[in-house]
Structure formats: structure tokens, C-alpha cells
Specification:
Layout lengths: L8 H8 L2 H9 L5 E2 H8 L3 H14 L2 E6 L2 E6 L5 H15 L4 H4 L9
């Protein structure tokens, strides 16, 4: 997939069909996340989280921003409205499986 502007509904569903990618995307709806934040939320290793983030980045669903030594991931600001609507529709159901204290962006993580 080259750029999210041409993503089809089937391609989006394939991206979001993985628990790790779906939960990561939903976590980013409340703001940028560093890999260590997502590791805590997902309870997964750094290589596994990074691999899934790379898939989302290559598809154009997320963007990165370097802040010192840390890289933060956020939803791409140019997402088509229908893509944002799908993510926002799924978010409440996904968030029921994530402890609330882990999803609040106001709390700083241990690494950054």
C-alpha cells in the first residue's frame, strides 16, 4: 500500500485485523505515543511493537516525530474521514481491554 489516500476498506481492515496494530492505533487517538508507552499497554517486547508500528507507518496510517532520543508515533493528520470514523467507532470496544491508567496520555511513561 502506497499512502493512505488510496487505501481501500479491505486494506484498512487487514491493517487493523491484528490486535497489536488495532490497540496501538486506538491508543494514539488520545495523542502521540512512544514505543515504551505502547510496550506497557500491549504487554509486548520492543521488537514486536516496533515491527507492527513499521507496518502502520509504511501504510501511511501513523507518523513519527523524534523528541531527543525518543520516537513518538501518532495518527497521520491527513487520514481520510472514513478511516478516522472507523478507528473512532472501534476505539470504545478496544479500550475495554486496556487498563484505564495505561491509556491516559497525561501520564508520563517510565522511559521518556
Amino acid at each position: 500500500m502506497q499512502g493512505l489516500k488510496t487505501v481501500t476498506p479491505v486494506e484498512l481492515m487487514k491493517l487493523l485485523a491484528d490486535d497489536t496494530r488495532l490497540t496501538s492505533v486506538v491508543a494514539m487517538t488520545s495523542g502521540p505515543r512512544c514505543v515504551c508507552d505502547l510496550m506497557d499497554i500491549l504487554q509486548l517486547s520492543q521488537p514486536k511493537v516496533s515491527r507492527h508500528l513499521a507496518i502502520l507507518r509504511e501504510a501511511g496510517l501513523v507518523e513519527t516525530e523524534r523528541r531527543g532520543q525518543w520516537v513518538y508515533y501518532s495518527l497521520a493528520p491527513q487520514l481520510p474521514a472514513w478511516v478516522a470514523e472507523v478507528i473512532n467507532t472501534l476505539a470504545p470496544m478496544v479500550l475495554t481491554s486496556v487498563p484505564e491508567h495505561m491509556i491516559n496520555p497525561g501520564e508520563s511513561s517510565a522511559c521518556c
